[in-house]
Recover the amino acids of this structure.
């Protein structure tokens, strides 16, 4: 499998998590952004340095990120050359899909991996240029998982 490009934590207080990680690990952050997927509003931020990036998401409980009332590791993110094939591969391997952004025009999917207590996120490679422009301007391309 290709290297993951980010680690995501769901947090109830984005600014506190940013402050604490900056203090503890000298992380620097892009500007947080507001977003919405389906019925769920959220705030998101990525670390400046990477890959691998640290992603923080603050959202109300009950959406794609589950119980966000307590901070927790949510997922490892990977680029994929073919989202549907990758999702099928993970589901067949026993890692069920927990959420798909596809019905909302967002080509990504979360798959539960109980052995790590978190999800694996596959993001369609076609989104990488937009990610780089938004979160890592001038950064190099990142390798995807090559799906058959």
């Amino acid at each position: 499998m290709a290297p993951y490009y980010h680690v995501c934590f769901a947090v109830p207080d984005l600014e506190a998590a940013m402050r604490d990680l900056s203090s503890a690990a000298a992380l620097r952050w892009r500007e947080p952004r507001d977003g919405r997927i389906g019925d769920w509003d959220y705030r998101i931020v990525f670390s400046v340095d990477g890959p691998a990036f640290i992603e923080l998401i603050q959202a109300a409980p009950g959406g794609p990120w589950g119980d966000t009332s307590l901070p927790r590791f949510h997922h490892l993110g990977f680029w994929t050359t073919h989202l549907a094939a990758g999702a099928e591969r993970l589901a067949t391997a026993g890692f069920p899909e927990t959420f798909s952004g596809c019905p909302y025009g967002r080509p990504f999917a979360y798959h539960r991996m109980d052995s790590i207590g978190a999800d694996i996120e596959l993001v369609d490679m076609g989104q990488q240029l937009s990610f780089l422009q938004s979160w890592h301007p001038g950064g190099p391309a990142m390798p995807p998982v090559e799906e058959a």
